[in-house]
Specification:
The protein has five helices and six strands, in the order H-H-E-E-H-E-E-H-E-E-H. By secondary structure, the chain is of the alpha+beta class. The chain has a six-stranded mixed β-sheet with strand order 2-1-6-5-4-3. Helix 1 runs antiparallel to helix 2.
Length: 203
């Protein structure tokens, strides 16, 4: 595995924005793009502004032999707090394809999540879903994931439906030179973050 480019995170959304004219569809894609950057750089609180997300989001996450529903703002925000606490926010999406419509978007991609051995071992010791890793080494969790994200008529996220293809999941050790750190992700992605455009629903 060679080092991936962190800015691939938004490539599929950027490519689709270049050919999309429908105002609502563009708003959905801009929202998704901004959401992804905020999540990976640890600024998840900004995802939940009234312009970005509805007042009562619902997430449905399926994978690893479990199905979980996060119902409401407190539970959804707790999920993001957990990602930050376990140091598993840095992701690269590879080969993502997206279809967007008035109801929201669907996508499929290979997710590469970067986790240090120290963070994984600490999470494992606390029973928080990590793995028995060497604290001095570096790892990437690779998963094929399909997602359906519903949006409202204002282009605000209603929630996420996430489906992990368990047979396509693996955690591999990588050399430090191929590892993307949190600081590196912030350095590369935050300059590409832009405000969500103002949007007025048609009619």
């Amino acid at each position: 595995m060679t080092k991936l480019e962190i800015t691939m995170l938004t490539k599929a959304a950027d490519d689709l924005l270049a050919v999309t004219e429908n105002p609502l569809h563009r708003q959905i894609l801009e929202n998704y793009r901004r959401h992804a950057i905020l999540e990976v750089t640890g600024n998840w609180q900004q995802i939940f502004t009234p312009e970005m997300t509805v007042e009562h989001p619902v997430y449905r996450v399926n994978g690893g032999g479990m199905s979980m529903t996060l119902d409401g703002l407190d539970q959804v925000q707790g999920f993001y707090q957990g990602l930050s606490a376990t140091e598993t926010t840095v992701m690269v999406l590879e080969d993502e394809v997206i279809a967007v419509n008035d109801w929201g978007f669907a996508s499929e991609a290979i997710f590469h999540t970067y986790v240090t051995g120290a963070a994984a071992a600490s999470s494992f010791a606390r029973g928080e879903g990590g793995f028995d890793a060497d604290p001095e080494r570096f790892y990437v969790n690779r998963q094929r994931i399909a997602m359906i994200w519903p949006y409202d008529e204002r282009g605000r996220m209603i929630g996420e439906h996430v489906y992990v293809h368990d047979d396509d999941s693996a955690t591999i050790e990588v050399p430090e030179s191929d590892f993307i750190t949190f600081d590196e992700a912030c350095e590369r992605l935050l300059p590409t973050l832009r405000p969500l455009p103002a949007f007025e629903p048609a009619g």
